[in-house]
Amino acid sequence: MKKLIIKSILAVLIASATTVRAQDYPREYLGLPGDNFNLYAVMDLFRNSETLEDFERSLNDPDSRINNLDLNGDNSVDYITVSDYVDKKVHTIVLRALLGRNEYQDVAVFTVQKLHRKRVMIQLIGDVALYGRNYVIEPITTKKRVQRYYVDPVYEENVTVINNYYWDIFDWPVAVYICRPHYNGWHSSWHWGYYPDYWNPWRPYYWDYYYGYHSSCNHYYYTYYNHWDHPRYHRYNDFYFNGIRQQSSQVNHKIADGSYNETYSQPEQRVEGAELYNRTQVSPGNESRRTSSTTVTNRRDSQSSVTSGRTVTDSRTEEQREAWSRDAGRRAEETRAAESKVVEARDAGRREAESRADETRESERRAAESRAVEAREYERRATESRAADARESERRATASSAAEARESERRAAETRTAEARESERRASESRAAEAKDSERRAAESRAVEARESERRTAESRAAEARESERRAAAESRAAEARESERRASESRAAETRRSESNKKSGSRID
């Protein structure tokens, strides 16, 4: 009974310890979907790509283990397209995930700005929905001129270090490619339901496994790339964020309801991810960091390329699919064999752990001291680099302010000159318009006066005609009256004569 109680207590303690470790996240942890898309690895892949088409192909290659995004929740990694939107001398290269037939989500955006003949400014900006605000990665630049191209790998403490960093960013192959005089931008031709033949989506890893794999490169990443707090491209918000950016409401809802939190539920897999990196990337003679750049042409020649909706012949496609199936089976067998060897190595290490405990503690102490020295040196270099960047930014700000002041004065002078010319033009136009208006008014006045005189003449003639008619009518009536009076007088005279005649004849009769 006592043993059972002790075992129960130990189980509870182990579960509690596991829960505490699960919440002990590293400083790279964001708690957002962008945790499954390492922008440092994306920047390094971009640096070693020759063209944007090769960059998109490598970005969606399962062997690169960079794309681990499943934003639509279908348990398959989302395809990410690459499109370049050109704004004068600035290239805005958008990485966009295909979530549905008409649904997209921008993941990150490169801004490549050619400052002058041999200087290029590059930044990689994570989308605010996936990384939060101002998550910006950029190369650490220096004025020191060293070997630009690839050199042989160096082996230090069983770790392969390949010094293939381009100190001059303008010499990055992709920068040379997009800064050509006749380059007008490149846009991916793939969309939802229409993918290249090489695309075969896989089930995404848990974040701890993904982080364990990429954390092995953190020292390399932080040596050549650093985090910046704002976009340097001044038209980023106007040209891209408020114009080109695609936002998915589905992603916002999933972030709000915590649907992406399940990917953080396997903290014990960090060790497995680191072991995968050690098996695949740190073996002697391995030159995987070169692969994305030096074998792009071979990949292009050996595999079928699909451009603008055209596909290769069915037989070639079937052969490729069979080859990919064989490669996938071979890789699975190799993985299983490697895992079996790892299990055996774990057992052997556990059995020999007691005998090697003292040596391990001593080596850990020495390694800790070495890491502390390296960390101090890195901090010193980072401090010097930040100070140099601050001085350079101040100098640029001063030069920019002076240039803006000169430009504003020039524009003000041009504006005043233009306003003077415009006022003179308006005055001359006003004078001409007034002259035309006065002439028009004079002509209208003369026309009115002519019409008025004609009207008065016509009225005078009409009055005279009416007066003559009235007079003629009056005279006619007067003549008729006189005639009627004359006839009446003649009638009365005749009657008088008849009456007198009748009186005379009556008197004679009497």
Write a brief caption for the model:
The chain has 510 residues and is of the alpha+beta class. The protein has helices at residues 2-23, 39-47, 52-59, 128-131, 173-178, 207-214, 218-224, 236-241, 249-256, 270-281, 288-294, 296-302, 314-509, and strands at 80-87, 90-100, 103-116, 119-126, 136-139, 154-156, 159-161, 225-228.
Number of strands: 8
- The parts where pLDDT drops under 50 for at least 5 residues are 16-22, 142-167, 283-317
The percent range for strand residues is 5-15%
Largest sheet strand order: 1-2-3-4-5-8
Number of helices: 13
Distance between the termini: 196 Å
| Anisotropy-based shape | elongated
Helix content: 55-70%
* Rg for CA atoms: 50 Å
The helix-and-strand class reads alpha+beta
Order of helices and strands: HHHEEEEHEEEHHHEHHHHHH
Q: Main sheet, how many strands, which sense, barrel?
A: 6 strands, antiparallel
Write down the overall mean pLDDT: 79
